Amino acid sequence: MTNLLQRIFHSALCLCLMTAFLTSCAKEDANKRHFISDSTYRQKVETDYKERMALYGNKETGILGIESSENLSTEELEALQFLYAYMPLSDLIDYNTEYFIAQVRSAFTARDHFSWGESIPEDIFRHFVLVHRVNNENLDTARQVFFEELKPLLEGLSMREAALKVNHWCHEKVIYRATDGRTSSPLALVRTSWGRCGEESTFTTAALRAVGIPSRQCYTPRWVHTDSNHAWVEVWIDGKWHFIGACEPEPELDFAWFTAPARRAMMVNTTVIGPYNGEEAKLSQTDLYTRLNLLKNYADTRTLEVTVNDIDGKPVKDATIQFKVYNYGNLFPIAEGKTDTNGTFSIETGFGDILVWANKDDKYAYGKAAADNNKIEIKLNRREGESYKESFVMNPPKEQKVAALSQEQIASNDILLVQEDSIRNIYMSSFPKEEKAKAMSTDNWQYLLLAQGNWEEIKKFIDQSPQGMANPFLASLSEKDLRDTPAQYLLDAIDTSRENDFCSKFKMNAPPKGGKYDETLTKYILSPRIGIELIRPGWDVLAKQVRELIKNQDEQDLSESQITNLIKTYVESIQVSEENYYRCPVSPVGVMKLGYADAYSRDIFFVALCRSVGLPARLNPVTNKAEYKINPYSKDELWQAVYFGYDKQPEQATASISLTNASSNRLKPIYASHYALAKFDNGDFVNQDYRSQLKKLPAKVDLISGYYRLLIASRADDGSVSIDCEFFSVGDGDKLTKEIKLPETEGKKQVLGTLDMNTGLILDNRATTLKQVADGKSIVICFIDPDKEPSKHVLQDLPAQASELDLWGGKILFMVPSSKQNKNFDPSVFKGLPSNHTWAIDPDQELLITICKSLDSNFDMQTVINFPLTVVATSNGGIVMKAEGYRIGIGENILKNIDR
Questions:
Q1: 41: how many CB neighbours lie within 10 A of its CB?
Q2: Within 701-858, where are the H helices?
Q3: Are residues 760 and 767 in contact, defined by beta-carbon separation less than 8 angstroms?
């Protein structure tokens, strides 16, 4: 018995020792396992990493790379080298090594935890899971937070099921609402519970990567059948890329409200960090990143070949080519490139019209490539200064129908959507209401309301800021700043202002006569908001740097003008780099440490340095260039433009143009929607942002002398655009007058169907008919799906035409089909709608079916992709307008078609 026990003990001991040995070997093998198995690619990454560290890595910048980090496995080391070799400048300088080590380890943890991790190819994981950045968002620790929350929800699911589940989780957290162009971080979006499509898709991509599912944000730079753009997400599932609507879950992959619009797109792209060798078509490839053309995933495509010749017919090498579409009063570039030695450049695009722009040196030319053209020749025969007019029409790809989901799929998915809406709404109901906000701060309660999920941080700032300073400071911020900026970052800025004797210049305890603070002081000295950068701490560091500059001068008592020139000279030492390719601005302190930046971040740096010592500065709202003032109290002093050594010299506006509204216009022309001014610069016309000066016509704006284009356009109901262009020169002292006359959209409007105006409906609990509601006028009927982004766009667009629609006086019916009812939908959220609107339920979709039959439409009641459906009917029942699905500018089309 004793021998038996000894043998058992001996065997168990041997087994334990062997297990320990094998485990140790496995760990050793894992520690030595390569993240990049291709030795050639691995060597390139290592070389690129070392070159970048040699340029940027030192104690002054704080970029120490990964050599100082301990306990890194081979995989972790190679992954970090990849990130550091190719990340944009903003990430390189504004985030520390510990942050990226945590990102890498979390990516590997997700890969090893979920069953699908082992099926992901190395290059797909490297570019679409490991990478910490999606677009130009502010970075945070969402990867770790999301992994812990999602992990239990995904256990036992397939990769496909998990991707759909993650998108439902994202919808539970965030919904669509329009906001400004700065992209909040994923965690900030969770606090707010809403964001624009670019933020939703960034958030969803971050969530998918957090659980090891390869994903990327896709982006149509501009629609062509309507204004605006859109972003969504592609996920890699079992060897193939699929698309989903971010935070807009459907029961299947490759199905979303934008499926039909995407089939009319002319470009869909994404940006990939690092050298990428995938099969997708490439728009461009640099040492740091690759831009992919994904249009073939969504639409029928053609290869368009451009040949550029000089006036003698000889090919032009290295001419800049831009492919442009009309959008928001501008000819917007959706792709660009350079011609080869044969003067050619090709692109894969859709079957719609596209304007091809070419320029080199002082010559330019352009031409329209129609949908049936696969080749176009451009002859460089134009120069700056020629005066002429021309008109042309841009046609989008034809509208296409898409397959519908089954009624069962929609019904089961709707149950989930309602549950998720309820969870989100419960959280949002915790935001302070007016009564609670006023109880917390009688002077600043409105900012607590605007802060929403960030209200505790804003309250902390109010409580800790000096008496009287909180109100003008908060007034200078954007609403998004209130929603996503920590209190400490704001206190840092306000403390620096106090150190600069700001309080002695500005009586903070009470607003001046009239109840408003001086704009120059609040917006251009006190405010930390400059452009679209994230507000960060470090204003004291900037102020210290300026004091050091002054200290190094022979004369210490410098004037404001001398200090500004000193700052300008210092900023000129910053080298402009193209390595910040994601357009996420480098922080001012980061620019100071690094000595490199993109031009935009450099200009923000100049403004921040000035403000840190109490000198007024800003980015010009039209040109986006840095400007300063010497005397903040002078109303007559003009802003002085700052042009650095490698920019052109300063120019001042010495001319003007007066714009008038043509009496024949049926619509009120809106700047950057129907018309726009563009100034010729470096071979192309650059749009000038005069929206604040040209809110209504007639109006006058000051111009810098130069060569201009005035573009005026009208969009027809089929998405085509009629464009009138005038090219002209402006000299010093010129006073020009131009008429804004919207071009006619010939032959585009016709009666599409007939509606029986005796059709009955229930409004305000009483029976009536369409004829009675119309009361001798046209009637507008808009069927919406309250849960979907396209319907929300209509409700957010219409306020722009509210005054004109109120003057018209006809009725606007917002109808919610009973199948789309959602008890959590609150129409009161949408402010500024025309006063003559009414909400109603369409029982059993009776009115919708009636109208669709009249239009002989293939509208399918079991799919959401065609909502909203907006129609205008005359008093006699003739349907003269139909707008189906995602479109910007519905209000304008309504005004074109109602009888006024």
A1: 17
A2: 770-774, 789-797, 802-808, 846-854
A3: yes
Within 8 A by CB and 6+ apart from 156, the residues are none
How many whole angstroms separate alpha carbon 620 and alpha carbon 623?
Answer: 5
Handedness of CA 242, 243, 248, 251 (dihedral sign): negative
pLDDT at residue number 842: 84
Instruction: For residue 679, give Cα distances in angstroms to 324, 670, 673, 676, 736.
Output: 17, 19, 17, 10, 15
Orientation angle between helical segments 539-551 and 560-571, nearest 10 degrees? 110
Distance from C-alpha of 773 to C-alpha of 873, rounded to nearest angstrom: 12
337-352: pLDDT as tens digits: 999 999 999 999 999 9
Q: What is the CA radius of gyration of the chain?
A: 30
Rounded distance between C-alpha atoms, residue 688 and residue 703, angstroms: 10
Q: What is the DSSP string of 593-635?
A: HHSEE-HHHHHHHHHHHHHHTT--EEE-TTT--EEE-S-TT-S
**pTM for the structure as a whole:** 0.86
pLDDT band at 536 (very low <50, low <70, confident <90, very high): very high
Helix, coil or strand: residue 396: coil
Decide if 868 contacts 791 (C-beta within 8 A).
yes
Model pLDDT for residues 186-197, shown as the tens digit of each residue? 999 999 999 999
pLDDT tens-digit series, residues 444-493:
999 999 999 999 999 999 999 887 788 888 999 999 999 999 999 999 88
Tokens 């959280």 found at? 427
> CB under 8 Å to 264, separation ≥6 — which residues?
223, 224, 225, 299, 350, 352, 396, 397, 398, 399, 400, 719
Distance CA 653, CA 733 (A): 9
- How many Å separate Cα 39 from the centre of its chain? 38
